[in-house]
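Q: Is it fine to ask for two folds in a single conversation?
A: Yes, each is treated on its own. Send the first.
Q: Here.
A: Result:
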Amino acid sequence: MEPVKPSLEAAPAPAGEVLVEAEGLSKGFGPVRAVQDVGFQVRRGELVGFLGPNGAGKSTTMRMLTGYLRPDTGAARLAGLEVSDPAARRRLGYLPEHTPLHREMRVDRFLDLAATLHGLAGGARRDAVARVVDRCDLEGYAHRRIHTLSKGYRQRVGLAQALVHDPDVLVLDEPTSGLDPREIVRIRDLVARLAQDKTVLLSTHVLPEVEEVCRRVLILSGGRLVADGTPEELAAAEGERLVVEVADGPGGADLAAALAGLDGVREAVDVPPLRGGMARCALVVGSRREAAAEVQDLARSRGWPLLELRHELATLEQIFLSRTRGGPAEEEVA
């Protein structure tokens, strides 16, 4: 898969200030090139999903964007300022995958410490702590020690510390990792609420989470950016798709081979039948109308009863698998 050039042509962003900018970011660890020439921009008000298989370079990229790693080449900027600039760091809230919490501290005292480290004092500090306790649904837990909380509530404390200085940008690395389904929904809903007045870059392996809340998707594979666009744009780029299921006739692989031979079919993939049929295939086609007519003609001539002939858009999972297919399976160093 060819890398996406560092531009916004694949996904026009809404008008607004560029708050996050990666320009030609590259980073290596010994012989391993974890990130190679990654470039993109995130504008004010965007909630962007950042996807990639394990070892793709996501965490390394996010650490460069947040100033925790220095790139070998390229630049990372927040609101036009290099991330090393203290003025840029004040506009950033970062929740790493492994949330650094002082677990023996009470929630309110930990957040008070975080606010102090961000330079808040007196009434401003107290107001900031009260604001994030309310915003992250931590009422009733402020006087609890962090180690007594469930993992979901510890994650809320992590979000609260990232928000305590009221940053413009939130960078969230796997915020729902290891949570049960109920807590995943709660954290996802919280992130969606935060995105109403924050710019959010969200790294996650949970694709439904991205489909639910993100209007733009970046996909990294082998350290390179291979997709940038809205889910609808990326689905359209995957080509027209048809799903075909027959009640009688050839088995799955045989059906796929037969359909792949049609003029209008670019690719035929065997998928499990859903309705008790004998075989089911997903087709990538040039024109769904022409290909559907060819499929109907073939089924009629072979005597295959059609149970399903349906047009569909590529799912985010299909897009992800297509764009990351064949990428190197290197384990990310950092």
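Q: Second one now.
A: Result:
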Amino acid sequence: MSAVAVLGAGSWGTTLANLLARKGETVRLWAHEPDVVETINREHENPAFLPGIPLARELHALADAREAVDGAGVIVSAAPSHAVRSVIGFAAGAVAPGTLVVSATKGIETESLALMSTVVAECLPEARFAALSGPSFALEVCQGQPTAVVAAGRDEATARDAQQLFATSAFRVYSGTDVIGVELAGALKNVIAIAAGILEGLGLGHNPRAALITRGLAEISRLGSAMGADPLTFAGLAGMGDLVLTATGRLSRNRALGVALAEGTTLEQYRATHRSVAEGANTSRAGAALGARLGVELPIIEKVYEVLFTGKSARGAVPELMGRELKSEHWR
């Protein structure tokens, strides 16, 4: 049995590594932080990113990404989006042609505006690629709560390989081939979740949250269509499913960031006190830039970007959105 290398020991990377190890796979988990490597190997826990969860004793952590991927038949990329290129690029020399790379990162590279599939293809042009996404809080997966996600590959065989790898009795994996749609939905729902947190922090109720989720999904779908995605993807697990979870769930880091913004915390202050990454912050910048590049109007995503990076008042953004020119619900 060939090994699975998981690159990134945040909450989600650790959760997937633990799931696979408990399923019987030989798993090597690479962590950037030496203290995380030591604690996982010595105490079989990751208190920095997944506190209170006992990890499989067979799970082995490493501090060298090249060592982790050497000889591995599958690589799970779970680093934050801003680090994926450097991590994959560093380890590329030890990756064999034809290796299956499964991306579990929900983000967009800020400078290039590339999805993770493009980043991986540029670093590992001979790899097979699949994206794993859907409504899946790490803690609940670790608790064995029933969870459903989707694995999208460039071809059906690749998607099925990723599907079979991760599927368990409590972790149901559907397959698909819309890589762009699955990746884009997984990334942009984090921005809408920040907006949902802002509404909550402002003391607003269920009406505005329902409107936000619905119109946020419309924005994601418009951009996805412009990028060649299948519109049906946005009604599925990677789209509506993940958006509802992240915009409403108490475990959502992006929603929590939005609440803090509404209460007067700046992005810099929030990042200084939180070790885990809220991907939606950088994704708001990338999403707004993609919309501008493709001529797609994304009013909610643009407002979140302005609140995060230009000093716009969170409270002032709401009437600006409500006061926009009236349109047909299905305008393009």
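Q: Anything structural to flag on that second result?
A: Two points. DSSP finds 15 helices and eight strands in the chain. The first strand starts at residue 4 and ends at 7.
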